[in-house]
Write a structure and sequence with these properties.
Length: about 230
């Protein structure tokens, strides 16, 4: 492990943030630019950390519409891995409010249409879901981690209902995504990243949501995640 590798990843973050801030100042920040920079960041992190990425299932997701992607949450490194693998051209993520409090980085996230979630404030949480719904209706796919927090041991935790209501209320299919191995690169509580690890991303087929019971959809996503992450 090396702190140098961690700093290189931070440097890659700066390389996508700086031009976005310039675009914001000019009033010319476009979705396509954010899409391109986010995918570059994902590929760059894989390169810097010498990740052996095994991704399957992209062909299961038909193009031409928005989806609600839901994955388990092992590490902060989940995000670049997903941007490098998920097939939708435009994806914005629900993220905790603390990320939006980072100077400059937070401003860039807001301007780029990422969705700030404050679970401690019900009114603001509802506003966040309404904003995510607006993006979905505009053809932007949304990613969220229904566990709500990173796993400490890699196993799947209890799923929260919010994202499932979002999908059903907007009639947007859910795409389950299982991630294995990012916890070996950057475990929860660690600041140092480990190189040369294998990461597996398994993308499931879209799940219909119209008229379905929330609990049934939650069980279906949990079963997919447990099967591909926990092996049960």
């Amino acid at each position: 492990m090396s702190i140098i590798d961690s700093l290189r990843v931070v440097g890659a973050m700066a390389r996508i943030t700086a031009p976005s801030l310039v675009d914001i100042a000019r009033g010319s920040l476009e979705r396509e630019s954010i899409d391109e920079r986010a995918r570059w960041f994902g590929r760059r992190v894989i390169e810097l950390l010498d990740v052996d990425l095994i991704a399957t299932g992209m062909e299961r997701v038909p193009p031409g519409r928005a989806y609600v992607y839901m994955s388990n949450h092992q590490s902060h490194l989940d995000i670049p891995m997903l941007y490098a693998t998920l097939p939708s051209p435009t994806i914005r993520m629900l993220a905790k409010k603390e990320l939006f409090q980072i100077p400059l980085w937070g401003r860039g996230l807001r301007a780029a249409e990422f969705v700030e979630v404050d679970r401690s404030n019900h009114t603001r949480a509802v506003q966040s879901i309404e904003y995510a719904a607006k993006l979905l209706r505009d053809g932007v796919s949304i990613y969220l981690a229904p566990e709500g927090t990173r796993s400490r041991d890699g196993r799947i935790g209890k799923l929260k209902k919010g994202g499932f209501h979002l999908a059903r209320d907007t009639q947007t299919p859910i795409v389950p995504v299982a991630i294995r191995g990012t916890i070996d690169i950057l475990p929860r509580g660690s600041r140092v990243m480990n190189k040369g690890k294998t990461v597996e991303v398994t993308i499931g087929a879209p799940l219909a949501v119209e008229g379905r019971d929330i609990s049934t959809m939650m069980d279906e996503v949990a079963t997919f995640l447990k099967q591909h992450v926990d092996g049960r």
